[in-house]
Amino acid sequence: MSIDWICKHHSDLGKEQLYAILQLRTEVFVVEQKCAYQEVDGQDLAGDTCHLMAWQDDQLQAYLRLLDPESQGGDVVIGRVVTAPSARGQGLGHALIEKALEVAEKNWPGVPVYLSAQAHLQGYYGRYGFVVVGEEYLEDDIPHIGMRRG
């Protein structure tokens, strides 16, 4: 699988890239996971938000965004972590997290990284040094837990 990794500040995103990002996030988070919520939350084009994308043959295969620590109370916040249904089971999610941590360290050296994980993925993120902070909570009827690395 030949993947092109692209990380762009929101001000550098092309409209086709942004459209592909929103389409994939909606396909998975709203349709597949059956969560009716405001997926386009106003943070995609704010502050120093960066968008990490994995492209293959002009198809967005995986994505996440990094919200800058200044806008997030001191931590870099990783969110909207998603792999296209057709690309699952190939280790792309692991590569995505590894790349995200590289980007976070390059852009905001030494700053802790936070994410809100679906509770059943604690072990997955634990492999990358994330530890649980706080109590489990429900978000759109899915158990989540805060995790920080740092």
Task: Briefly say what this structure is.
Helix content is about 25%, strand content about 35%. The protein has about 150 residues and is α+β, with helices and mostly antiparallel strands. The chain has a single domain, classed as Aminopeptidase.
User: CATH H-level name... which superfamily?
Assistant: Gcn5-related N-acetyltransferase (GNAT)
Number of domains: 1
Could you state the oligomeric state of the chains shown?
A: single chain
Chain-averaged pLDDT:
95
Number of helices: 3
| Relative helix content | 25-40%
| CATH level-1 class | Alpha Beta
Low-confidence stretches: none
Which radius of gyration do the C-alpha atoms yield? 15 Å
| Shape verdict | globular
Number of strands: 7
% residues in beta strands: 35-45%
Structural category: alpha+beta
Which CATH architecture?
A: 3-Layer(aba) Sandwich
Order of helical and strand elements? EHEEEHEHEE
Stated plainly, the CATH topology is called Aminopeptidase
Lateral arrangement of strands in the main beta sheet: 1-2-3-4-5-7-6
Major sheet description: 7 strands, mixed
Cα end-to-end separation: 31 Å
GO molecular function: acyltransferase activity, transferring groups other than amino-acyl groups
Organism: Pseudomonas alkylphenolica
Family: Belongs to the UPF0039 (ElaA) family.
InterPro entries: Acyl_CoA_acyltransferase, GNAT_dom
List the keywords.
Aminopeptidase; alpha+beta; 7-stranded mixed β-sheet; 3 helices; 7 strands; globular; about 150 residues
Describe the structure.
Helix content is 26%, strand content 35%. It is α+β, with helices and mostly antiparallel strands. It has a single domain, classed as Gcn5-related N-acetyltransferase (GNAT) (Aminopeptidase, 3-Layer(aba) Sandwich), CATH 3.40.630. The longest helix has 18 residues. It is globular and about 40 Å long. The mean pLDDT is 95.
